[in-house]
Amino acid sequence: MLKNDLVVALSEMDYYKNQAGAVISDVFRVIAEALAQGEKVTIRGFGTFEVKTRKGCLVRDIHTKEQRKMDDYQVVVFRPGDNLKDAVRSNNPQKLRLLSRSEKK
Fold first, then answer.
1. What topology is assigned to 40-98 in CATH?
2. pTM score, two decimals?
């Protein structure tokens, strides 16, 4: 699924296409900014995005056969929540219960 597919899916849920595209872009931008600042982003029922530091290691340049130490580096890690895991395992997206606009009380 691509970003455009998300926009189309939201437009089928009574959102305007241009608003859906803007919202998706803004959500991704906010998540990326938080991760760039080292913050953890948790979406209940869906999962957690966080930045982890991986240790550097010895690497060998295949052209010169020279060994050198690679520096520590950071990676983004996503850990799915239990609701998302259950929905994927059972192949039933209805098990993923996130509060949507139409379900607000």
1. HU Protein; Chain A (4.10.520)
2. 0.73
